[in-house]
Amino acid sequence: MQLHDVWFVLIAVLWIGYFFLEGFDFGIGVLTKLLARGTAERRVLINTIGPVWDGNEVWLLTAGGATFAAFPDWYATLFSGFYLPLLLILVCLIVRGVAFEYRHKRPEERWQRNWEHAIFWTSLLPAFLWGVAFANIVHGVDIDREKNYVGTVGDLLNPYAILGGLVTLTLFTFHGAVFAALKTVGDIRDRARALALRLGLAAAVLAVVFLAWTQADRGNGWSLAATAVAVLALAGALVANQMGREGWAFLLSGITVVAAVAMLFLSLFPDVMPSTLDPQWSLTVSNASSSPYTLKLMTIVAAVFTPIVLLYQAWTYWVFRKRIGVQHIPGHDPAAALEKP
Fold first, then answer.
1. CA 182 to each of CA 73, 95, 124: distance values in angstroms, whole numbers, following the listed order
2. How many domains does the chain have?
3. The model's pTM
4. 3-state SS of the chain?
5. 182, 324 in Cβ contact below 8 A?
6. Bridge partners of 284?
7. 50: closest CA among 319, 253, 244, 256?
8. Given a cut of 80, is residue 332 above it in pLDDT?
9. I need a surface site. Which of 130, 141, 239, 258 has the fewest CB within 10 A?
10. Are 270 and 7 in contact (CB under 8 A)?
C-alpha cells in the first residue's frame, strides 16, 4: 500500500470519527425542539453535550486540513464546486457555537428562546447538508479535464443526494436520541427512548434504500460488507433501545454511523471524486495527491499527535460521564418541566 492510499484511509477515519461524534450532538440540537418540554429540559439536553461539542468539531478541522495537505486537487475541486453548501455549513457551525455560549448570558426568555431556535436550525441544516455533499462525492459530479467542477448548485440537489441528506439527518437524530437516553434521568429519558424507536425505524427505511442504491451504483465486496454491518447494527440498536440498554444502543447506533460512512469511502476508492462527464477525468488517490515527501512528513506528525488527541478526548468523555436531569438545573421549578415549548 502506497502513502496516498494510507492517507485516503486516514482521511476516511477522520470523517468517520467526526460523524460518529458530531452526529449525536447534531441530533441533540434537533431534539431541543422534538423532545424537550420547557426550558429546563432544553437546558438538560444542551448540557449533555456542553463539555464535548467543541472537541467533536476538532475532527472536522483535522479532516479538512488533512485533505488540503494530502490531496490538494481534491480539496480545491471539492471546496470550489461545493462552495455554497459548504459555506452554509460553516456559517451554521459558527452560529451554533455562538448560540451555545450566548444562550445563558442573559436571563430574558426571548433572548434564550432565540438562541435555542438557532441551535435547532444550525444542527438540522448541517446534518442534512453533509449527507447531500457526501452523496454527491460518491455518486460523481461534473468535473472536466482540468479538474474543475463545471456543474451548478442545482445539480447537487439530485434525488440521490437528497436521499443521502435525509439519511444523515434521521440517523444523526436517532443517534442523538439514544445518547439523550444514555445521559439523562427521569421522564425525559423515557421519552428519548420512545422517540429513538420512531426515529430509528425512519432512518432504517431511508438507509436501506440509500445503501442499496449506492451498492448498485458503485458497490464492491468491501462496501457490501460495510452495508451489512450498518443494517445489522441499526437493528441491534433498536432492540437494545427497546430493552432499556442505552449503553449498547448508543454503541450500536455509533457502529451504524461508522459502517455507513465507511461504506461510502469503500465505494469511492480508488477515486476521491468521480467525474460524470468522463471517468478518465475523475480525481483519484494517485492524481490528486501531494508529493511522497509531503505525505511522509504528514505521516510522522500524525503518528505523534493523534494518540494524544484521542487520549485527551477519551478523558473528557470519562470525566463528564454521569447522567443529568431537570433536578440538576439550578433554580428549576418542577412545574416548568411540564411547559410546552
1. 42, 27, 21
2. 1
3. 0.90
4. CCHHHHHHHHHHHHHHHHHHHHHHHHHHHHHHHHCCCCHHHHHHHHHHHCCCHHHHHHHHHHHHHHHHHHCHHHHHHHHHHCHHHHHHHHHHHHHHHHHHHHCCCCCCHHHHHHHHHHHHHHHHHHHHHHHHHHHHHHHCECECCCCCECCCHHHHCCHHHHHHHHHHHHHHHHHHHHHHHHHECCHHHHHHHHHHHHHHHHHHHHHHHHHHHHHHHHCCHHHHHHHHHHHHHHHHHHHHHHCCCHHHHHHHHHHHHHHHHHHHHHHHCCEEECECCCHHHCEECCCCCCCHHHHHHHHHHHHHHHHHHHHHHHHHHHHCCCCECHHHCCCCCHHHHHCCC
5. no
6. 271
7. 319
8. no
9. 239
10. no
List, in sequence order, every residue forming a beta bridge with 273; answer none if it has no partner.
Answer: 283
Per residue in 247-293, pLDDT (tens digit) is 999 999 999 999 999 999 999 988 999 998 888 998 999 888 888 88
Integer Cα distance of 182 and 320 in angstroms: 12
Tell me which residue range forms the domain holding 156.
3-338
At 333, give phi and psi (nearest 5°): -95, 120
Place of cell 479535464: 145
CATH of the domain at 269: 1.20.1630.10
How is residue 11 written as a grid cell?
A: 482521511
**Cα distance between residue 250 and residue 237, in whole Å:** 7
